[in-house]
Every structure is written in C-alpha cells, then in structure tokens.
Amino acid sequence: MSTMERLPTSLVRFESQLEDAIRQERARRRRLLAAGIGTVAVAAAIGAFGLTVSDLPGDEPRASAIVRTRAALTPPEGAILHVVERTTLTGPGGTEVTRSETWQQSTAPFDERSISYDEAGAVGRELATADGRPEAYDPQTNTIHTTAPDVVLPPRTGPATGPQRLVRAMRESIAAGEAREDGRVTIEGRDAIRLVAGDNALVVDARTFEPIEWTSSVEGTGGMYDTATTRIEVYEWLPANDEHTALLSLAAQHPGATVVTDVTIEGVDGPKGQ
Amino acid sequence: MEIADGRTDAELLRGRGDEAAAFTELYRRHVETVHGWFRHRIEAAASDLTAETFAQAWLSRRRFRDQRDGSALPWLLGVARNVLRASARRHRVETRARAKLGLPVDLAAEDGYARVDERVSLSWDLTQALDELPEHERRAVEMRVVDELAYSEIAARLAIQPAAARLRVSRGLRRLRQEDR
In this complex, how many residue pairs, one in chain A and one in chain B, have their CB atoms less than 8 Å apart? Predict the structure, then answer.
C-alpha cells in the first residue's frame, strides 16, 4: 500500500504490533467474561462474607437486616430473575465498565436471555440459552444463530453465569459467617444498609432488603483489575407466566428472525459439535 | 467514507466480527494523516505520538460518535490533540495507552531519533502555551504558526473575515509573549 510506504518503518511495523495487542487484549477480556467477572468470579471472591443470626446476640436490628437480606435473595419457586447491572472493574489496568440486562429461570432448564450495552447505552450482544442450547441474535441480519437440533449437549444443572449465580453466592455467603452491618448509606437517593465482610461489601435497600451494590476484590485478571463494583439497577423476581417466559426467548422477542443452526461448540458430541 | 468491502469507519469501530482486523483497517486508512498532523507539529516525536493516538483510540473506541458520514478521522484527530496536550503537560511523550496494551513505547529510537524528549522540549513548551490560549485564538495561531496558512485561508476555515483572523493571531501571539516573560 502506498500510504504505508511513506510512513516511518516504526509505524509500518506498529500495524501488526497493534493488531496482535488488540487480539491479546480481546482474549484477556474473553477470559474475564468466562470467569464471570462482574458476577460469578466476583461472588466467588467473597466466600467469607456471611453471618448467622446467632453471631449477633442481642442486636435485633442487625440480625433483622441479615435475615431479611437472605429472604430477599431467595428465589420464589419457579420465578424468573430480572436484573439490570452495571459493573465497574478498577485496578492497574484502568477502569472498565460493563452493563447488561438479564432474565434467568431459577429452575430447570434454566433458560436465560441477556443483552449487553456499551457505555453509551447502545445494544451490544444479545445472547440466550434455550433448553441448554446457546443462541445469539444478530440485529443487522435479523438472524438467530444456534446449534443444530441433533447436537447433543450436556444437561444444565443451573445457571452457568450471570446474576443468579451472584445472588446465590451472596445468599450462601450470608449464611457462612463473618458479615456485619456497617451502617446506613444513601445510594441515588435510596436509604440503604451496608453489610461488610473483609474487603467486600453488599449494600441493600433499607426497606426491601434487595441488593443495590456489591463490591468485591477480583482475582484471575492477570493483575489488571483488583476491585469490582456491581450496581444492581433493577432486581426483581417475575412469576413464570407466559408473558415473562417470553422474555427468556430470542425467538419470542424477535418473531420474524431467521434461525440459522451454525453454532458449533468445542468438545460437544454431535454433527455440528465435533 | 467506505472501502471495498462497504464498511465505513463507524462500522469498523462498532466491532462486529474480527475487531482486531477491523481496527487495523482503520489504522491503515488514517495513519498517514495522523502522522502528518503530528509531523507538522513535533517531528521527532511524531511516530510515538501517532502510535499512542491509535492505542488510545482503541481503548476509547466506545466513545466514538458518528458525526461525519461514518468517517472517524475527525474523532482520531481529536484523540491526537488530547495525546499531544497530555504529552505537553507531562513534558514527555505520552505512553500510557501503549503500556496498557503491551505495545512498544519508544518508536522514535527506531526512526533514528535519540532522546526524543530532550530534543522536543521547546515544542512541548509551545504546545503547552498554545493550549492555554482561548480556543478561538489557539486555533488561529496554530493555523498561522504551525500550519503556516495565509490569513485568507485561516479566515475561510474559521468562517470569519481576514482582518478578524489577523486580529486573533495577533492577540494570541501577544498573549504567548506575555506568558513567556
């Protein structure tokens, strides 16, 4: 290319260096997502977070906050969890913000649909799992990509990622033992209670005890990030009626979309998965 | 702005498909212009500043807003200006975006410039002083002193009368002289 011929050698070489660096950065990002940063891995880092009522003798308001938080984190039978969350990762690597909206079934087959947004609020990826099968929606071609029906997938035993795993980790950790109430705070005008355990903190609504913000140390990012703060903008359990079940489905949300069975999964048996 | 495959700069930056290849295509399209913009201002550091601009552009690509028919060049030059401004403030070539991506941070040495920070110190001073001028004066002075444009051309670009362009440059230069005392 004539343009590149007029450039200094360093900038000609920089083209491939930049491309390689971007690929490595994307690979790191995918590893973070696979580790569930913002949800799963963050939650896993707070295994010490917990408190039983008996750990707080004679302190009824504290015990009440813990107990009621546990109740708010317990899913009603068969309900669908709807969460909008914004996670900010901070550390030596700078700051990274992700935002997503997710609907997840709390019982088998654990169907789910999620939409990720960029910092400006534009829709990024829309993904789903339908009866264990991964799906992705491409708005440009109005196409749903999924696996072929004859691909054999392992049965799901629960949500693999996402806010339900976070909620479960919070609930279990509260029962484990070291949390304490750390006073009242106000977040975006909401009266809230802060619960802490070590370096981790959970802020819950003082009236409903639903989670508002979760801050935790982060591992597995290669030192890029050390803290994650997840602001839970929407948190609700929806009854599993037809209207809400449709929220889990890409096909229901995009009824005119073409379905293409071109998704392959490494390590999965089947004609498309091999 | 489109290329053979039909994608605009804006579509490349939206990152569908192979993001690395798409951003590299953006680099190929605009690296010469960005490098020329820097070379005109501070030649010894032009390669490093260009590289830093594209590294920073990648890291902040989500802030791009398509306001020029899909072209990312105005946005890239805005990033370039910020990189130059940050470098002037720190009196050394900005490297943070490249360091974050694990990229080389001393391209000047490859181009044969030794100890580039020392060599360009006067230019840093000028850049920093320009940066402290009011925006309308800074643009006029930059066009006259850095880009060496005629007053008629400056007037046309700023949509003002040539006499007003001359006045802006004059005031800006006077302010620079006063700050230099």
Answer: 85
